[in-house]
Protein backbone atom coordinates (compact mmCIF):
# COMPACT_ATOMS: atom_id res chain seq x y z
CA UNK A 1 0.00 0.00 0.00
CA UNK A 2 1.50 3.32 -1.10
CA UNK A 3 1.49 6.29 1.26
CA UNK A 4 0.44 9.56 -0.39
CA UNK A 5 1.13 13.12 0.77
CA UNK A 6 -1.06 15.76 -0.87
CA UNK A 7 0.20 19.35 -1.14
CA UNK A 8 -2.35 22.15 -1.37
CA UNK A 9 -2.59 25.93 -1.25
CA UNK A 10 -6.36 26.52 -1.18
CA UNK A 11 -9.74 24.91 -0.72
CA UNK A 12 -8.60 21.41 -1.60
CA UNK A 13 -11.39 20.19 -3.89
CA UNK A 14 -9.01 17.91 -5.80
CA UNK A 15 -7.47 16.77 -2.50
CA UNK A 16 -10.90 15.70 -1.24
CA UNK A 17 -11.50 13.63 -4.39
CA UNK A 18 -8.07 12.00 -4.03
CA UNK A 19 -8.68 11.11 -0.38
CA UNK A 20 -12.14 9.72 -1.20
CA UNK A 21 -10.64 7.59 -3.98
CA UNK A 22 -7.96 6.09 -1.75
CA UNK A 23 -10.21 3.40 -0.32
CA UNK A 24 -11.14 -0.10 -1.34
CA UNK A 25 -9.20 -1.38 -4.34
CA UNK A 26 -6.97 1.68 -4.71
CA UNK A 27 -3.46 0.62 -3.58
CA UNK A 28 -2.81 3.98 -1.91
CA UNK A 29 -3.76 5.70 1.33
CA UNK A 30 -3.36 9.36 2.36
CA UNK A 31 -0.71 9.95 5.02
CA UNK A 32 -0.60 13.77 5.03
CA UNK A 33 -2.23 16.89 3.64
CA UNK A 34 0.22 19.78 3.74
CA UNK A 35 -0.56 23.42 2.93
CA UNK A 36 1.71 26.41 2.39
CA UNK A 37 -1.01 28.98 3.16
CA UNK A 38 -2.31 29.54 6.72
CA UNK A 39 -6.05 29.09 6.83
CA UNK A 40 -6.17 27.14 3.55
CA UNK A 41 -9.67 25.67 3.48
CA UNK A 42 -8.33 22.27 2.47
CA UNK A 43 -6.69 21.78 5.88
CA UNK A 44 -10.03 21.74 7.70
CA UNK A 45 -11.51 19.51 5.00
CA UNK A 46 -8.62 17.04 5.39
CA UNK A 47 -9.00 17.02 9.17
CA UNK A 48 -12.72 16.30 8.75
CA UNK A 49 -11.74 13.32 6.58
CA UNK A 50 -9.37 12.06 9.28
CA UNK A 51 -6.15 12.81 7.38
CA UNK A 52 -3.15 14.23 9.29
CA UNK A 53 -2.31 17.81 8.29
CA UNK A 54 0.65 20.16 8.42
CA UNK A 55 1.34 23.76 7.53
CA UNK A 56 4.58 25.21 6.16
CA UNK A 57 3.88 28.88 5.47
CA UNK A 58 6.12 30.05 2.63
CA UNK A 59 5.84 33.76 3.45
CA UNK A 60 8.34 33.92 6.35
CA UNK A 61 10.98 32.50 4.01
CA UNK A 62 10.62 35.37 1.52
CA UNK A 63 12.78 34.67 -1.53
CA UNK A 64 14.60 31.82 0.29
CA UNK A 65 13.10 28.92 -1.67
CA UNK A 66 15.73 26.50 -0.35
CA UNK A 67 14.79 27.33 3.24
CA UNK A 68 11.09 26.82 2.52
CA UNK A 69 11.77 23.51 0.82
CA UNK A 70 13.95 22.35 3.72
CA UNK A 71 11.01 22.94 6.07
CA UNK A 72 8.69 21.25 3.59
CA UNK A 73 10.98 18.24 3.37
CA UNK A 74 11.14 17.97 7.17
CA UNK A 75 7.34 17.64 7.34
CA UNK A 76 7.27 15.16 4.47
CA UNK A 77 10.01 13.07 6.05
CA UNK A 78 7.89 12.71 9.20
CA UNK A 79 5.01 11.29 7.10
CA UNK A 80 7.27 9.08 4.93
CA UNK A 81 5.18 9.21 1.74
CA UNK A 82 5.85 7.01 -1.26
CA UNK A 83 4.06 9.46 -3.58
CA UNK A 84 3.51 13.22 -3.49
CA UNK A 85 0.41 14.57 -5.22
CA UNK A 86 0.35 18.30 -5.91
CA UNK A 87 -3.28 19.44 -5.87
CA UNK A 88 -3.49 23.17 -6.35
CA UNK A 89 -0.11 23.72 -4.71
CA UNK A 90 0.81 27.18 -5.97
CA UNK A 91 4.57 27.17 -5.46
CA UNK A 92 7.19 26.46 -8.09
CA UNK A 93 9.54 23.84 -6.70
CA UNK A 94 13.29 23.89 -7.29
CA UNK A 95 15.18 21.29 -9.26
CA UNK A 96 16.84 20.09 -6.05
CA UNK A 97 13.47 19.32 -4.42
CA UNK A 98 12.00 17.77 -7.55
CA UNK A 99 15.04 15.56 -8.12
CA UNK A 100 14.67 14.03 -4.67
CA UNK A 101 11.10 12.96 -5.51
CA UNK A 102 11.65 12.25 -9.21
CA UNK A 103 9.30 9.57 -10.47
CA UNK A 104 7.15 9.80 -7.34
CA UNK A 105 5.55 13.26 -7.64
CA UNK A 106 2.39 14.02 -9.61
CA UNK A 107 0.64 17.25 -10.53
CA UNK A 108 -2.62 18.20 -12.21
CA UNK A 109 -2.63 21.14 -14.58
CA UNK A 110 -5.74 22.80 -16.07
CA UNK A 111 -4.76 22.57 -19.73
CA UNK A 112 -4.05 19.96 -22.35
CA UNK A 113 -0.30 19.96 -21.92
CA UNK A 114 2.02 20.73 -23.58
CA UNK A 115 -0.31 23.65 -24.37
CA UNK A 116 -0.55 26.54 -21.93
CA UNK A 117 1.99 25.81 -19.26
CA UNK A 118 1.81 28.22 -16.34
CA UNK A 119 -1.15 30.42 -15.39
CA UNK A 120 -4.33 31.77 -17.01
CA UNK A 121 -4.79 28.60 -19.02
CA UNK A 122 -8.53 28.96 -19.65
CA UNK A 123 -8.31 32.55 -20.90
CA UNK A 124 -5.41 31.61 -23.15
CA UNK A 125 -7.32 28.67 -24.67
CA UNK A 126 -10.37 30.85 -25.36
CA UNK A 127 -8.27 33.68 -26.81
CA UNK A 128 -6.51 31.22 -29.11
CA UNK A 129 -9.85 30.07 -30.53
CA UNK A 130 -9.28 26.46 -29.42
CA UNK A 131 -12.18 24.04 -29.87
CA UNK A 132 -11.41 22.20 -26.66
CA UNK A 133 -9.62 22.53 -23.35
CA UNK A 134 -9.06 20.13 -20.49
CA UNK A 135 -6.66 18.98 -17.83
CA UNK A 136 -3.52 16.89 -17.58
CA UNK A 137 -1.98 14.77 -14.83
CA UNK A 138 1.77 14.49 -15.25
CA UNK A 139 4.89 13.48 -13.41
CA UNK A 140 6.69 16.51 -12.01
CA UNK A 141 10.09 17.36 -13.44
CA UNK A 142 12.34 20.37 -13.00
CA UNK A 143 10.71 22.04 -16.02
CA UNK A 144 7.45 23.85 -15.21
CA UNK A 145 4.33 21.84 -16.14
CA UNK A 146 6.43 19.32 -18.02
CA UNK A 147 7.16 15.65 -17.42
CA UNK A 148 5.57 12.45 -18.70
CA UNK A 149 1.81 12.74 -19.21
CA UNK A 150 -0.14 10.19 -17.17
CA UNK A 151 -3.66 11.21 -18.13
CA UNK A 152 -5.79 13.81 -19.88
CA UNK A 153 -9.46 14.74 -19.98
CA UNK A 154 -10.99 17.04 -22.60
CA UNK A 155 -13.94 19.40 -22.58
CA UNK A 156 -15.35 21.43 -25.50
CA UNK A 157 -15.01 25.18 -25.47
CA UNK A 158 -18.51 26.53 -26.05
CA UNK A 159 -19.53 29.78 -27.71
CA UNK A 160 -19.77 32.45 -25.05
CA UNK A 161 -17.51 30.62 -22.60
CA UNK A 162 -15.63 32.77 -20.13
CA UNK A 163 -12.50 31.67 -18.28
CA UNK A 164 -14.75 31.07 -15.26
CA UNK A 165 -17.35 28.89 -17.01
CA UNK A 166 -14.65 26.89 -18.74
CA UNK A 167 -12.69 26.49 -15.49
CA UNK A 168 -15.79 25.07 -13.77
CA UNK A 169 -16.24 22.38 -16.45
CA UNK A 170 -12.54 21.53 -16.50
CA UNK A 171 -12.56 21.20 -12.69
CA UNK A 172 -15.31 18.57 -12.94
CA UNK A 173 -12.98 16.53 -15.16
CA UNK A 174 -10.03 17.10 -12.83
CA UNK A 175 -12.09 15.51 -10.06
CA UNK A 176 -12.56 12.39 -12.21
CA UNK A 177 -9.14 12.18 -13.82
CA UNK A 178 -6.73 12.77 -10.92
CA UNK A 179 -8.08 10.03 -8.60
CA UNK A 180 -8.12 7.50 -11.46
CA UNK A 181 -4.54 8.32 -12.44
CA UNK A 182 -3.27 8.31 -8.86
CA UNK A 183 -4.67 4.84 -8.15
CA UNK A 184 -3.21 3.48 -11.41
CA UNK A 185 0.15 5.12 -10.65
CA UNK A 186 0.21 3.61 -7.15
CA UNK A 187 -0.36 0.21 -8.75
CA UNK A 188 2.65 0.76 -11.02
CA UNK A 189 0.68 1.56 -14.17
CA UNK A 190 2.10 4.63 -15.90
CA UNK A 191 0.32 4.28 -19.23
CA UNK A 192 -1.48 7.51 -20.17
CA UNK A 193 -5.16 7.44 -19.26
CA UNK A 194 -7.69 9.22 -21.44
CA UNK A 195 -10.99 10.20 -19.86
CA UNK A 196 -13.71 10.95 -22.46
Automatic annotation (TrEMBL):
<dbReference type="Pfam" id="PF00551">
    <property type="entry name" value="Formyl_trans_N"/>
</dbReference>
<comment type="function">
    <text>Catalyzes the transfer of a formyl group from 10-formyltetrahydrofolate to 5-phospho-ribosyl-glycinamide (GAR), producing 5-phospho-ribosyl-N-formylglycinamide (FGAR) and tetrahydrofolate.</text>
</comment>
<feature type="binding site">
    <location>
        <begin position="12"/>
        <end position="14"/>
    </location>
    <ligand>
        <name>N(1)-(5-phospho-beta-D-ribosyl)glycinamide</name>
    </ligand>
</feature>
<dbReference type="InterPro" id="IPR002376">
    <property type="entry name" value="Formyl_transf_N"/>
</dbReference>
<comment type="similarity">
    <text>Belongs to the GART family.</text>
</comment>
<dbReference type="GO" id="GO:0004644">
    <property type="term" value="F:phosphoribosylglycinamide formyltransferase activity"/>
</dbReference>
<comment type="pathway">
    <text>Purine metabolism; IMP biosynthesis via de novo pathway; N(2)-formyl-N(1)-(5-phospho-D-ribosyl)glycinamide from N(1)-(5-phospho-D-ribosyl)glycinamide (10-formyl THF route): step 1/1.</text>
</comment>
<feature type="binding site">
    <location>
        <position position="107"/>
    </location>
    <ligand>
        <name>(6R)-10-formyltetrahydrofolate</name>
    </ligand>
</feature>
<feature type="binding site">
    <location>
        <position position="65"/>
    </location>
    <ligand>
        <name>(6R)-10-formyltetrahydrofolate</name>
    </ligand>
</feature>
<dbReference type="InterPro" id="IPR004607">
    <property type="entry name" value="GART"/>
</dbReference>
<dbReference type="InterPro" id="IPR001555">
    <property type="entry name" value="GART_AS"/>
</dbReference>
<feature type="site" description="Raises pKa of active site His">
    <location>
        <position position="145"/>
    </location>
</feature>
<feature type="domain" description="Formyl transferase N-terminal">
    <location>
        <begin position="2"/>
        <end position="182"/>
    </location>
</feature>
<feature type="active site" description="Proton donor">
    <location>
        <position position="109"/>
    </location>
</feature>
<protein>
    <recommendedName>
        <fullName>Phosphoribosylglycinamide formyltransferase</fullName>
        <ecNumber>2.1.2.2</ecNumber>
    </recommendedName>
</protein>
<keyword id="KW-0808">Transferase</keyword>
<keyword id="KW-0658">Purine biosynthesis</keyword>
Amino acid sequence: MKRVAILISGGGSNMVRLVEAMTGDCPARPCLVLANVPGAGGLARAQALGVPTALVDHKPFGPDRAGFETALTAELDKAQPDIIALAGFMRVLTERFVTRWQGRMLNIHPSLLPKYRGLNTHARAIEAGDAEAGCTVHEVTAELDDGPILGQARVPIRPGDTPETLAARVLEQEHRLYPAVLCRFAAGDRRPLRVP
